[in-house]
């Protein structure tokens, strides 16, 4: 299997008063048509890793890498026209909160039609047809209603489905989902994950799933990267997670309370300064 | 079942909370009843919009009680609450980034309640409060923006405890924190309860957190009570309601179609 | 050198050991931030010069500002080394008059700030915090004041109270608090439902303590910024009243009144009206630059 995405020694740095701060440090991985989880706590650099792959690093940050290629296309210093070719068509991103990523003054339908228009001109009725189709593909039972709704009229789960639908318009090969379910209720969370799961299976997409929730990621992904302070401290197959070697991974795994009587007090995580080295 | 007369330290009977009026009327809580005994830790679980936080805010007087009664130590609570009530009942908020005044030092945050209630030895009390929540004296004159989320939540707990209340109302105290920090804060809350014999009412969307912290819990949905369970009933999967079972399944993580564990 | 470095470290300490160190540290951080803004430093410099000129007017001014020289030989002299800014039609040294006039300007600015800011803050925070009918009553009163153009309302007040610098100050103060009340109310509305206000309410604090100790400090910075930015307008209003003869009365060296009296000779003796005009311009600019810089530093919305 050839790798769709190759990342070698990716670093992202932001300027600060005391010189540049590297929030992502020498991250390397490759991705085929599979589900890869990136897990870490706040400030671990997991979101910046995802953004750097899509060229969405804030303008004051600098991205460096020995190798950063998507399907053979070098992404380092890619021109804005290259990015336009890639983003939306070949790779897409789903953000945490649909409230902030959907345009509040446009109906969902118009936003999806807009996305189709960017891919090439089709007749209006054809685009509407397509939009309704993509909405039902994310298991929205009443696509007509959602088509005419404004983002604020939808619940969180429905908004996130609409968001995913919009990202599917270009039928991308790679979907980067940055905490796509963290703003949702637990019962809705599973529905959204199921949709993502089906998409990866049926369309053969690659998925990078970024989350703080190690348990959720391990139950959903094939492979997990655990990040701490900008570095990948462990890369492990999800099913082997209980055999994790790195103390940070183990700590993250065990510090969560369990419904069927865990230990008391909860094991806490001792941060070793050596992990930063 | 408990009799209709109030046995608990806190007793909530047919509580209803309504916001707005006319067409904007929102019934956030409709007919919720439970008792919390002295020294007990009681949990309220629900998803967003279930009215779980509103129940907590109604107990401490931040939300209006439009139906039913809330009694504390056998006396029905009136609005507004008397200052003495706040010496017995305190609250910890969800978001430690929003619950501390941005321009006040930790010292000011902790000493203000002492000044309001005219307690003696404010210096000593502030120092002890910081030690109790595992923050050293070095934190005393810092501003909230110089603290991490977990440290801020410790300050919020210290503030709630400085008046030496009997009851602590905890509104999602760890949902804004990283998992490893959550463990530390939950351990701290657990230890403080055993040391001081506190009574907790803890609200959370996370069934695991409630199961870990509380002996008894009530599940809420759409402002109504779904069912009341003990911890052991929850652990032995004795939930009788469909919704509770769904929550239990959801909290176990994702299971792909066709796979079983 | 080492003493300076250690004092800086003491101020920037992440672990202050006393209330005083925490407060000074906070103030020092604000100052360091402000110092980075060059234009704000220019503005601060101008305001400082104004203050110094007002304090040491007697030392700086070479001539008496009120009584002139020989009316036959010293009238309307152009700028020279003897008279840096020339003399006016009463043979008075314009430079000395401007230096002494800074006292009047500073007094107007300070008095208006002292009177209008607390009124605006009190009205705005009270209305915002309590809401309901308190809000309605207070804000309708504010609206009434806001409905009139400031200069017109000030003119009406001065006309009723009689001309003079004190009445001009009162008139300007009365007309300048409503924007501060609006601003403070808007800020209060966003603060009112914050968790930290609920938290202090749950500690049993009364409304007075909450408004004064918790709401006002957060509204204060944006109001201070607004007041500083308004200073230019206040100086202009005072000058305008002076120009119309309703502010400071002759022979007081008020800048607006000086322009008014120099207006008659503006073609032949340009410096008589221009010099006080430049003074008004420079001081207004100074307050504006300072206000802009303060906004970047103090405004909680601009901060991280």
Automatic annotation (TrEMBL), chain A:
Gene3D superfamilies: P-loop containing nucleotide triphosphate hydrolases
One Pfam family it belongs to: ABC_tran
Signal peptide bounds: none
Subcellular locations according to the entry: Cell inner membrane
Chief location of this protein within or outside the cell: membrane
Gene Ontology terms describing biological process: transmembrane transport
Entry membrane topology: Peripheral membrane protein
Gene Ontology molecular functions: ATP binding; ATP hydrolysis activity
Top-level lineage group: Bacteria
Keywords (A to Z) from UniProt: ATP-binding, Cell membrane, Membrane, Nucleotide-binding, Transport
Alphabetized InterPro entries for the sequence: AAA+_ATPase, ABC_Ni/Peptide_Import, ABC_transporter-like_ATP-bd, P-loop_NTPase
ABC transporter domain boundaries: 5-254
GO cellular component: plasma membrane
CDD domains found in the cross-reference section: ABC_NikE_OppD_transporters (cd03257)
Family note: Belongs to the ABC transporter superfamily.
Protein name: Peptide/nickel transport system ATP-binding protein
Organism: Sulfitobacter brevis
UniProtKB/TrEMBL annotation, chain B:
SMART domains: AAA
Domain of life of the native organism: Bacteria
Domain ABC transporter positions: 12-247
Protein name according to UniProt: Glutathione import ATP-binding protein GsiA
Assembly mode: The complex is composed of two ATP-binding proteins (GsiA), two transmembrane proteins (GsiC and GsiD) and a solute-binding protein (GsiB).
GO biological process, one term: transmembrane transport
Entry EC number(s): 7.4.2.10
PANTHER family tied to this protein: GLUTATHIONE IMPORT ATP-BINDING PROTEIN GSIA, TRANSPORT ATP-BINDING PROTEIN
Lineage: Bacteria, Pseudomonadati, Pseudomonadota, Alphaproteobacteria, Rhodobacterales
Function field: Part of the ABC transporter complex GsiABCD involved in glutathione import. Responsible for energy coupling to the transport system.
SUPFAM superfamilies documented for this protein: P-loop containing nucleoside triphosphate hydrolases (SSF52540)
Keyword Nucleotide-binding: yes
Cellular-component GO terms for this entry: plasma membrane
Automatic annotation (TrEMBL), chain C:
GO CC aspect terms: plasma membrane
Example GO BP: protein transport
Subcellular location(s) of the protein: Cell membrane
Pfam families reported in the protein's UniProt record: BPD_transp_1, OppC_N
Ranges for domain ABC transmembrane type-1: 102-291
The organism's place on the tree of life at top rank: Bacteria
Membrane topology of the entry: Multi-pass membrane protein
PROSITE patterns from the UniProt entry: ABC_TM1
Coiled coil ranges: none
Keywords tagged on the record: Cell membrane, Membrane, Peptide transport, Protein transport, Transmembrane, Transmembrane helix, Transport
Entries under CDD domains matching the protein: TM_PBP2
Principal subcellular localisation of the protein: membrane
Transmembrane residue ranges: 39-61, 104-130, 151-174, 223-248, 269-290
Family stated for the protein in its record: Belongs to the binding-protein-dependent transport system permease family.
PANTHER family: D,D-DIPEPTIDE TRANSPORT SYSTEM PERMEASE PROTEIN DDPC-RELATED, OLIGOPEPTIDE TRANSPORT SYSTEM PERMEASE PROTEIN APPC
Protein name (database record): Peptide/nickel transport system permease protein
Species whose genome carries this gene: Sulfitobacter brevis
Lineage: Bacteria, Pseudomonadati, Pseudomonadota, Alphaproteobacteria, Rhodobacterales
């Amino acid at each position: 299997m050839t790798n769709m995405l190759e990342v070698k020694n990716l670093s992202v740095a932001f300027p600060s008063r005391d010189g540049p701060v590297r929030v992502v440090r020498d991250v390397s991985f490759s991705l085929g048509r599979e589900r890869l989880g990136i897990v870490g706590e706040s400030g671990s650099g997991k979101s910046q890793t995802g953004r750097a792959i899509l060229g969405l690093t804030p303008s004051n940050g600098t991205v460096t890498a020995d190798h950063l290629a998507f399907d053979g296309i070098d992404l380092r210093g890619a021109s804005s026209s290259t990015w336009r070719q890639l983003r939306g068509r070949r790779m897409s991103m789903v953000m945490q909160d649909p409230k902030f990523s959907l345009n509040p003054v446009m109906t969902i339908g118009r936003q999806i039609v807009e996305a189709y228009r960017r891919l090439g001109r089709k007749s209006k009725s054809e685009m509407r047809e397509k939009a309704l189709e993509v909405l039902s593909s994310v298991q929205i039972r009443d696509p007509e209603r959602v088509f005419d709704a404004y983002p604020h009229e939808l619940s969180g789960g429905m908004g996130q489905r609409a968001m995913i639908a919009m990202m599917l318009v270009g039928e991308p090969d790679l979907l980067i989902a940055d905490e796509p379910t963290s703003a949702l209720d637990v019962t809705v969370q599973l529905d959204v994950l199921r949709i993502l799961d089906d998409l990866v299976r049926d369309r053969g997409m690659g998925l990078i799933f970024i989350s703080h929730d190690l348990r959720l990621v391990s139950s959903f992904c094939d492979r997990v990267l655990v990040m701490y302070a900008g570095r990948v401290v462990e890369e492990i197959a999800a099913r082997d997670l209980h055999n994790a070697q790195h103390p940070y991974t183990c700590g993250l795994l065990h510090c969560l309370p369990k419904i069927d009587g865990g230990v008391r007090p909860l094991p806490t995580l001792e941060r070793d300064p050596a992990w930063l080295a | 079942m408990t009799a209709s007369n109030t046995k608990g330290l806190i007793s909530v009977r047919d509580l209803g909370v309504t916001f707005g009026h006319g067409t904007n009327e929102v019934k956030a809580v409709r007919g919720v009843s439970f008792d919390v005994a002295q020294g007990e830790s009681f949990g309220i679980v629900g998803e967003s919009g279930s009215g779980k936080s509103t129940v907590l805010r109604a107990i401490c007087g931040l939300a209006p009680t439009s139906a039913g009664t809330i009694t504390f130590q056998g006396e029905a609570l009136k609005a507004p609450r008397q200052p003495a009530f706040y010496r017995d009942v305190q609250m910890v908020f969800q978001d430690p980034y929003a619950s501390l005044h941005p321009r006040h030092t930790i010292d000011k945050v902790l000493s203000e309640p002492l000044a309001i209630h005219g307690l003696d030895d404010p210096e000593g009390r502030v120092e002890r409060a910081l030690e109790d929540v595992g923050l050293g004296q070095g934190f005393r004159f810092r501003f909230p923006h110089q603290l991490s989320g977990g440290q801020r939540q410790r300050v919020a707990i210290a503030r709630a405890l400085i008046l030496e209340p009997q009851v602590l109302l905890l509104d999602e105290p760890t949902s804004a924190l990283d998992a490893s920090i959550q463990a530390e804060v939950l351990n701290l809350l657990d230890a403080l309860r055993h040391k001081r014999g506190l009574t907790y009412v803890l609200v959370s969307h996370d069934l695991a957190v409630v199961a870990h912290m509380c002996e008894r819990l009530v599940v809420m949905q759409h402002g109504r009570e779904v069912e009341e369970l003990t911890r052991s009933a929850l652990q032995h999967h004795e939930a009788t309601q469909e919704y509770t079972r769904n929550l239990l399944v959801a909290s176990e993580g994702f299971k792909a179609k066709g796979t079983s564990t | 050198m080492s003493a300076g470095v250690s004092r800086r470290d003491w101020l920037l300490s992440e672990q202050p050991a006393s209330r005083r160190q925490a407060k000074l540290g906070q103030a020092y951080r604000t100052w360091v931030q402000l110092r980075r803004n060059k234009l704000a430093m220019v503005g601060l410099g101008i305001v400082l010069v104004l203050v110094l000129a007002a304090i040491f007017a007697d030392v700086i001014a070479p001539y008496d500002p009120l009584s002139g020289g020989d009316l036959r030989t010293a009238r309307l002299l152009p700028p020279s080394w003897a008279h840096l800014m020339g003399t006016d039609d009463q043979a008075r040294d314009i430079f000395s008059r401007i230096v002494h006039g800074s006292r009047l300007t500073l007094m107007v600015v300070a008095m208006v700030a002292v009177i209008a800011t607390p009124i605006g803050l009190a009205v705005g925070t009270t209305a915002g915090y309590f809401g309901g009918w308190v809000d309605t009553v207070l804000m309708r009163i504010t609206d009434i004041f806001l409905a009139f153009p400031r200069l017109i309302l000030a003119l009406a007040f001065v006309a009723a109270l009689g001309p003079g610098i004190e009445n001009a100050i009162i008139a300007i103060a009365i007309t300048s608090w409503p924007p501060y009340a609006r601003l403070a109310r808007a800020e209060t509305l966003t603060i009112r439902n914050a968790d930290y206000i609920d938290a202090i309410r749950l500690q049993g604090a009364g409304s007075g303590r909450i408004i004064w100790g918790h709401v006002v400090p957060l509204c204060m910075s944006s109001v201070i910024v607004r007041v500083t930015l308004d200073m230019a307008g206040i100086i202009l209003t005072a000058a305008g009243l002076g120009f119309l003869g309703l502010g400071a009365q002759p022979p007081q060296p008020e800048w607006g009144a000086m322009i008014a009296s120099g207006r008659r000779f503006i073609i032949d003796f340009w410096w008589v009206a221009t010099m006080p005009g430049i003074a008004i311009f420079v001081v207004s600019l100074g307050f504006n630059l300072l206000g802009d810089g303060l906004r970047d530093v103090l405004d909680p919305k601009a901060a991280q």
